[in-house]
């Protein structure tokens, strides 16, 4: 090899070693920052104070009318059980899996309403608190949207299941309840 190539290779190796030692090595001196604006960016941390904003907070409230991703529920029939006029829908507005409804019913509804919907579940067995019998004529005649509204928001002692059960699963539960009511 020529002397020139050896010198070039030695300089190349030395420069790579020097660049590699600039960051991450133990030293009492601060590291060398070839491009310091990447390491020290002007920014606010969450919950920190700010002299810039009038309320002294760095976190800003969302713009009025902002909707979080996945939280835009425009289909009132699907998410509220009501039509455009505000009346309860009479039929389930989405295709549902009745088997999924049975599974969700057994998880969320059976403890109070019982496996057959007679209102005598575990709550009745242990505390003699009778829940609503789902075979009552009033409930059999009620529109599907009204049952969905009760499952969603609760009624009386019954809690609402808006958050733990997704809307399509609540509709599947209604389909299963209708199957229970018909005796299928």
Order of helices and strands: HHHHHHHH
Q: Segments where pLDDT lies below 50 for 5+ residues?
A: none
Structure class: mainly alpha
Main β-sheet, in a few words?
none
Number of strands: 0
Task: Describe the protein in words.
By secondary structure, this protein is mainly alpha-helical. It contains eight helices and no strands. It has helices at 3-22, 76-80, 98-108, 110-113, 122-127, 137-141, 144-153, 167-182. The longest helix has 20 residues, at 3-22. The relative contact order is 0.11.
Topology:
Blueprint: H1 3-22, H2 76-80, H3 98-108, H4 110-113, H5 122-127, H6 137-141, H7 144-153, H8 167-182
Descriptive terms for the model:
mainly alpha; single chain
Briefly, what is this?
The protein is an all-alpha fold and 184 residues long.
